[in-house]
Design a protein that fits this description.
The chain is α+β, with helices and mostly antiparallel strands and about 300 residues long. Helices cover about 20% and strands about 35% of the residues. It has 2 domains: about 150 residues, Aminopeptidase, CATH 3.40.630; about 140 residues, Aminopeptidase (3-Layer(aba) Sandwich). The chain has 7 helices and 13 strands.
């Protein structure tokens, strides 16, 4: 693994920044683990960066501060309190994340970062200056109230919401309208090839905890394509299946068969429960998923800067 080359820090004050090309350094791993552990129950955590989809380019700013709570001793030197990343999604389109160590939350660290660098990151030193003029998107995982307020305070525009749904168990599915209804046989083909359609911005924020992710082509008994899905399993003891609809079917009935076939494929692969996500405005897909006993778990909000 190459060692990131840091660029000159910002002037010391409330915060100082260490910026470099590439993903977060190994030294930031304890911060990300602590944040994920603190946020897991409420669904506020971002995907583990080590599991994210490969990006053409990654930029990182490590945020250090002398801020501390009155109940703790003042540090002798600035300590790591947050990490800002910019991940290239496409031409002039970048995803921005800021993750704050739980020990430094509610202390104004994130606010100080954006006051220093601006919502368009133009105040960051090199190499961030090379993406001047780009559009930045950010995801408020679990619609965390603080992240939503921060985004709006610095001029971000709300652009959409996705619902995260959970199918708790196989027995819940067996009792659902979808499972009880008679249905013709459909087949899932494991190697469906690359997705030819344009990726939605949401796809870049999908959870990356799945292993052996596959894109399936669902066909009927005559071989006609009904739709496509991506499926995967987590490595946890309680194996969670992940289901993402890639291409909408041409009718509600076909959507039902695509979802049904994907669910049964995941059960056969050892899933204990299944998670999925869908744009909150896609009422047809939401209705199909609810007919399979999927329950609303949380929602994510998308914001656009610049």
């Amino acid at each position: 693994m190459s060692v990131p080359i840091p660029y000159e820090d910002t002037e010391p004050g409330l915060i100082s920044l260490r910026c470099y090309d590439g993903p977060p350094s190994p030294g930031t791993a304890p911060l990300f683990r602590a944040a994920r552990d603190a946020d897991a129950e409420m669904g506020f955590s971002a995907p583990d960066p080590s599991l994210s989809r490969p990006s053409a380019r990654y930029l990182t700013a490590e945020v250090r501060t002398l801020l501390h709570r009155w109940t703790t001793a003042a540090p002798s030197a600035p300590v790591l309190a947050a990490v800002v990343t910019a991940r290239e999604l496409g031409s002039s389109l970048w995803a921005v994340d800021i993750v704050v160590d739980p020990q430094f939350r509610s202390m104004g660290v994130a606010t100080a970062v954006f006051e220093t660098v601006g919502a368009d990151l133009s105040g960051l030193p090199a190499p961030f200056g090379t993406i001047d003029g780009a559009t930045f998107v950010g995801c408020s995982y679990g619609s965390h109230p603080a992240s939503g307020r921060l985004a709006r305070r610095f001029g971000a525009q709300f652009r959409g919401r996705r619902d995260r749904l959970l199918l708790p168990s196989r027995s819940d599915y067996a009792a659902s309208r979808m499972a009880r209804a008679p249905h013709p046989p459909f087949v899932a083909t494991a190697d469906a090839g690359p997705d030819t359609g344009p990726a939605s911005v949401w796809q870049h924020f999908e959870e990356a905890d799945a292993t052996d992710t596959r894109r399936l082509c669902i066909t009927d008994a005559d071989g006609a394509v009904a739709g496509h899905v991506r499926v995967g399993l987590t490595d946890e003891t309680h194996r969670v299946g992940l289901l993402r609809l890639d291409v909408a079917a041409d009718s509600r009935d076909r959507s039902v068969e695509v979802v049904r076939t994907a669910i049964e494929h995941l059960w056969a692969c050892g899933a204990v429960s299944i998670e999925t996500s869908v744009d909150a405005t896609d009422t047809t897909t939401l209705d199909v998923l609810r007919s399979a006993a999927f329950q609303h778990d949380r929602s994510d909000a998308l914001f656009v800067f610049g």
